[in-house]
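look at this one:
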Amino acid sequence: MLPLNGIPTPEDIAAVMPTEERLSKGPVAITECFQNIPCDPCYHSCKRGAIKAFTDINERPQIDFDKCNGCGSCMSRCPGLAIFVVDATYSDSEALVKIPYEFLPLPRVNQIVTAVNRAGEELGNAKVVKVQNTKAQDKTALVWLAVPKNLMMESRHFLVKEVR
């Protein structure tokens, strides 16, 4: 389906996901870059060496999940906005999903938004926990959403319910 509509298949997604054991240890980045293109800023931005070295710049990024601490430094460097951080340990009922965001206006902390999946379908409410927007991020803000745990692997964007 990816070449036809841009939506990855369940097999595509399964190939880039960390194990349940790794998810239980805290925040971790997930690269949902599903096409071979000449791109490697994520590799150069990771100070922990969690994004494995490319032997060919056209390769898709691979994360060593054991080295990744979910800091998100790779997220704002990805021109395709294809890297997300999930934290299944956020609370008993919610997970944290960090999403790269390049729209204005930025959402507000504590604002309720609608989480959407990779196809743009509405999943339910999410709460904005934090908005990071520093000069170093070069206009790619990172929006931290608290979502129900069962939606953490599906929530990949959001809709602002109101315009300020």
Observations:
- Helices lie at 2-5, 10-14, 20-23, 41-45.
- The chain has a mean pLDDT of 93.
- The chain is about 10% helix and 25% strand.
- The CA atoms of residues 13 and 32 lie 7 Å apart.
